[in-house]
Amino acid sequence: MFPKVLVCVVGARPNFMKMAPIIRQLQAVRHLIIPYLVHTGQHYDQAMKDTFFQQLGIPEPDKDLGVGSGSHAVQTANVMLRFEPVLDEVKPFAVLVVGDVNSTIACGLVAVKKNIPLIHVEAGLRSYDRQMPEEINRILTDQLSDLLFTTERAAADNLTREGIAEQRICFTGNVMIDTLLANCQQASSLAETLQRYGSKQVVSEKAYALLTLHRPSNVDDPETLERLVRVVGDISEKLPVIFPVHPRTQQKIAEAGLLQLLPQQRVIMLPPVAYLEMLGLMQAAQLVLTDSGGLQEETTALGVPCVTLRENTERPITITEGTNTIVGTDPAKIMQCVDDILHTGGKSGRVPEYWDGKAADRIVDEILRRYELAR
Questions:
Q1: Catalytic residue among 72, 214, 246, 343
Q2: Whether residue 214 lies in the annotated active site
Q3: For residues 93-98, average pLDDT
Q4: What's the whole-number mean pLDDT along residues 135-159?
Q5: Cβ(26)–Cβ(6) under 8 Å?
């Protein structure tokens, strides 16, 4: 029997961490499945390619669609237009997508319109906030998918409530944690990262807060952004804050004239950092302040207290079992949570079921079984 082609799609930074262990497992069964990696170019620059592809051991994409940025409609449409000819050429037995970015739903739509089975990794997560573009992408991709892999058991309840048959759902665990556990030993140290970016401040391990901020709901609204920047300045009086700044966030802070609220000696602003640098910064932090979904999961796996600057989360297991606390953007709630962590150590949590570094193994085994591709 000749091996069959499985098209695997990545489009944005979080996708790479999720796809890396899956590609690695597929390469171990190349006599049965040939992975064909498509990078849509939804988020793309040479530095990201160098760091993410090389650090995570992802092979060069077989196809780079080079879509680039744009509005949600423009970006989704361009991915669809450029992805369809790839499927005509490659003729895969299925298309595998991860996460909830525009590339996920765009490629999923193209696949199902051409009667190609769709596989969704990280299915069933719900914030129940339809103001989030990612929520729409999640819901629609799950409805389109033939095989849905979940990171936590509760995700299956979300899917069955939406009419998705149980036999299409498979709980396999969290591939993001596969990547984290595989790279903990290789993570850049705090000192290495600060030196690399020319920071002169002296910061000790487990004696600083790590901050990330990028969601439009937080950075596009001037009042919300000012509230958050002011409370970060207040937190920095208690312990240093390391802040790898997304370019768009930096632009919004500068446009609003808020930079002076972040004292340079206490808030260390870095450019966006590579995966191994961010992993090292998380490991050594006393606490993490973030509006990122992925960091909520990674801090839970690492046992680092996480303060989530959002009103909701699509990853509730990080709250019920992990180290995460949702505080929104109310400065009083944020400061209260930070003070609690500084005085008590914060939530210790536990690592959820199947966040054990073997999710990709289970995913590939189920694909082989479901599509009758004998080992």
A1: 214
A2: yes
A3: 98
A4: 97
A5: yes
